[in-house]
Design brief:
The chain has helices at about 1-30, 40, 45-55, 60-70, 85-95, 100-115, 120-130, 135-150, 155-165, 175-185, 190-200, 205-230, and strands spanning about 245-250, 250-255. Strands 1-2 form a two-stranded antiparallel sheet. It is an all-alpha fold and about 270 residues long. Helices cover about 60% and strands about 0% of the residues. The chain starts with a helix and ends in a 14-residue tail after the last strand.
Length: about 270
């Protein structure tokens, strides 16, 4: 009996010592941090499988996926552009469950574009949204920006911005942005110059008039200086205000400093 009590006491002492030692080890030894990205851990289900197994509960599942997606959304950039980011796949699943869920297109496309940098995924979401809601202002203006300034697809960007320009709440500066996008898409500078002249005649805002005048000067100078410096025929020797271009050495230059008529792009 005495021997059993001694064994019990020794066992308790050893157990306490082991707990104490393990506490010291845990406090003083730094374990390697295991960092699993959301891209690796996210659960996405095949769209067709979801439609087959939803058993008429598409709206309920759609709401569940939407709330879960908002709670789980991360800010890690996705640069592979292969339509395989977890957020794109999740928004796509929501579309398959409810193709008329407008917020999924509006917020999903914007989040993929701005936060995730998943431009291809954003394009697919915006395109799907515009098929269902071709006159939605938010979808149009965000998709237009994506195409023109992120994807450098100026023709599509111009087409979408042109639609936006007919909305009463469209930005006023869109008037002068449209010709630049059209120019970037390959329109001849002479056509842009002519369109800007017509725009100036109709414009009432003094701010926009001044801006259009500067752009008219810039695009005319670009046309004329290219003609003069390449020694073409029938060149104009005067700028927009009637001042003669100045010849310095072998090249002609404008008498007034101007900014090149072009879009300011990220890439």
């Amino acid at each position: 009996m005495i021997l059993k009590k001694k064994k019990d006491i020794i066992f308790i002492i050893l157990t306490v010592m082991l707990f104490f030692i393990s506490g010291l080890i845990n406090k003083n030894i730094k374990l390697p941090k295991i960092d699993i990205s959301k891209q690796q851990s996210a659960l996405n289900i095949n769209d067709k499988f979801m439609q087959i197994t939803s058993a008429g509960q598409q709206r309920l599942l759609c709401d569940l996926f939407w709330i879960t997606t908002l709670l789980e959304s991360d800010t890690d950039h996705y640069s592979r552009q292969d339509l395989n980011s977890w957020l794109y796949l999740r928004f796509k699943t929501i579309i398959s469950l409810d193709p008329f869920f407008l917020e999924n297109y509006q917020l999903g496309g914007k989040y993929l574009s701005i936060v995730k940098d998943d431009l291809l995924g954003a394009k697919e979401i915006f395109d799907s949204g515009l098929k269902q809601y071709p006159r939605d202002y938010d979808l149009l203006i965000n998709a237009a920006f994506l195409y023109a300034f992120e994807l450098n697809d100026f023709k599509m960007g111009y087409k979408l911005y042109e639609k936006v320009s007919h909305f009463p709440k469209a930005p006023k500066l869109l008037k002068t942005l449209l010709p630049k996008i059209q120019y970037q898409a390959g329109a001849k500078p002479q056509l842009i110059f002519s369109n800007l002249q017509e725009m100036l005649k109709r414009e009432k805002s003094s701010f926009l008039k001044e801006k259009i005048t500067k752009e008219l000067y810039a695009i005319k100078a670009q046309i004329d200086l290219e003609c003069l410096n390449k020694q073409k025929k029938n060149c104009s020797y005067k700028d927009y205000f009637g001042n003669f271009y100045i010849k310095k050495g072998a090249l002609y230059k404008a008498p007034i400093k101007f900014n090149q008529y072009k879009l300011n792009l990220k890439n």
